[in-house]
Amino acid sequence: MNLLSILLQAPASGGELSWTGPLLIVLLFVVMYFFMIRPQQKQKKEIEKQRANLKVGDKVVTSGGIHAKLKEINDNNYIIEIADGVKVKIDKASVFALPQ
Description:
The protein is of the alpha+beta class and 100 residues long. The chain has helices at 3-7, 20-52, and strands spanning 59-62, 67-73, 77-83, 86-91, 95-97. A hairpin with a 4-residue loop joins strand 1 (59-62) and strand 2 (67-73). It is rod-shaped, with a radius of gyration of 24 Å.
């Protein structure tokens, strides 16, 4: 039997209501929250914390995979140096990770 047929079963005989269907749905959402949604929220907070602690001279990796050195910090963007004398302006959300 697949999950859908189990959830859509008719109530038990004698007029009793079956609570297994709604209980399985609630259990599924609880499992999804703890294994998928919560870890993503933690990772997002960690990345935001790292972005807030950046300072000029730090090495960064952009979401496109470019390794660079941070040269200037503005309100909504960074200016990074990807090679000697080659500076690029990027959005703050583009800084994905710090190299280890």
